[in-house]
Amino acid sequence: MMEERMGNCWSYTKDQFDNLEKHTQSGIEFVERYSKFVKERSEIEISYAKQIRNLSKKYQPKKNSREDEENKYTSCRAFLSTLNELNDYAGQHEVIAENLTSQIITELSRYLTELKAERKSHFHDGRKAQQQIESSWKQLESSKRRFERDCKEADRAQQYFERMDADINVTKADVEKARQQAQMRHQIAADSKTEYSNYLTKFNQEQNEHYYTLIPNIFQKLQEMEERRIERVGVSMKTYAEVDREVLPIVGKCLDGMTKAAESIEPKTDSKQVVESYKSGFEPPGDVEFEDYGPGQTMKRTVSETSLSNSRGEAKERPGGGKSKGKLWPFIKNKNKSPKQNKEPLSNRFNEFMASKPKMTCLRSLRRGGSGPEDFSHLPPEQRRKKLQAKIDDINKDIQKEMDQKDALTKMKGVYEKNPQMGDPASVDPRLVEMSMNIEKLQSEVQKFEGWLAEVEGRLPSRSDPPRRQSGLYESQHSNSTMVDNNCAQDRESPDGSYTEEQSSETQVKVAIANTPEFDDEFDDGDEETLPTIGTCKAVYSFEGHNEGTISVTEGELLFVIEQDKGDGWTRVRRNEEEEGYVPTSYVEVFLETNAKDS
């Protein structure tokens, strides 16, 4: 009946207290083992992601001209896209490791701490109840033994009284004393019996409460705790699978990107790119004329007018009397490795070396260029045209950068002129002069390379499509600048052959500045249109904008950025449609929009 009432409850195992303790301990160890398994899986994912990223980084194109040339081909661009997708693929494994740590490892670690504390509390209550029932049992056994002892002593006293009463030689007083002693022993035995009965009743009640109330409740709590543990392990295992499933769509997109990159490879386009990259512009040589042999005549090799040698100019006579042989076609190699040449006196060579002037290039050209002549004359015509055009584009970008910086300094000078307490306007002049000189040098280089480009294209130096002027200041300075030779405009050669720089350019810069129209007042809000917002900024420090053109900000205030720092240390911000002004760039933290960064 009792077992039927207990059903599947752990109370049925009330006598298996130690076994249940071992079982729950093994359950905790299982959770710890599973948590360790997930932790090692997370470490493997992190290591794998790191190796994938290193692999992608290893095969990324290097910053050199050879890799840039290779990126023109669709196959190289597809491989670069594959590397980028592989990098994103590695990121998804990092996401797996992060989710495993946050959703499983951390949660199981916290749960294990709670589980151990709960288990310890339940078994503490069980041991306490066990000790209490054992103490009650000991009291019952003690009272039982005392009752048995008192009963035996009462029997001995009764037997002694009966012997004394039957003996005629014993006095009446001794008999009375024995009788009283027997009565007292019987009374003590009766009291011991009553005490034993009370302890027995109490023990039976406590034992019944122990096995039918206390222990079942404790075991029921242990059972619920164990079921929650098993359920928690199941949830963790499900989460383990869901973490992988969550990244599958993004992993699939990465793989789709790799497939799309592979499908974008176009062999025909790459072949055309090879032709475009290595097209020399030379025309094939003409037919070789028939040359008859006559007595006393020497057979000479004649070259057509369209041959490669004639395109470079006719052969010149060597100092020793021989003539240089023209190259028939670029792919034909000279098989005569050591041709015989007429020797010439060493003094002629020495005089020729002393009479030649060293060809110097400017510092900017050395910084930009690589090996080979500055005008790329060592390249075929078509390749030379491309190199010259790329060089002109790069220099125009440098001119635009210098112009932007100069405009910013000019604005700052205007602010200083209106508010002398903010700074000395004269302190900006040296930097403005330096920038003007740099712009003039860059413009001279543009003219120089444009001349070479016009020569390659077979046109006059005055091209029909001149490059776009960057600003009014650029036009005025361009009109005042002087024409230069094939070397840098500021290059000069001293009598001893050393390199000097022209000092008269400062005068030209001053003339250019004098001819530059003064810019409009940037603080006249009524005459200029509202500038668009290019980002936001947060004030790191408070700034009191007492001067005209500035705006006061408080620490932590959020503002809109409408004009970046042009190199003058000031950023133009807007609080609302009517309040805007300049604040020190070092006082704010700027967050530009993506399109503003790209521009």
TrEMBL record:
Q: Where is the composition biased (Basic and acidic residues)?
A: 459-468
Q: Name one GO cellular component term.
A: plasma membrane
User: Boundaries of each SH3 domain copy?
Assistant: 532-593
State the UniProt keywords alphabetically.
Cell membrane, Coiled coil, Cytoplasm, Cytoskeleton, Endocytosis, Lipid-binding, Membrane, SH3 domain
**Disordered: annotated segments:** 279-345, 366-386, 459-509
Q: Which residues form a coiled coil?
A: none
Q: Which GO terms describe its molecular function?
A: lipid binding
Q: Where in the cell is it found?
A: Cell membrane; Cytoplasm, Cell cortex; Cytoplasm, Cytoskeleton
- In what residue span(s) does the REM-1 domain sit? 378-455
Q: Which domain of life is it from?
A: Eukaryota
Q: What is this protein called?
A: Formin binding protein 1
Annotated organism of origin: Salmo trutta (Brown trout)
Q: Which gene encodes it?
A: FNBP1
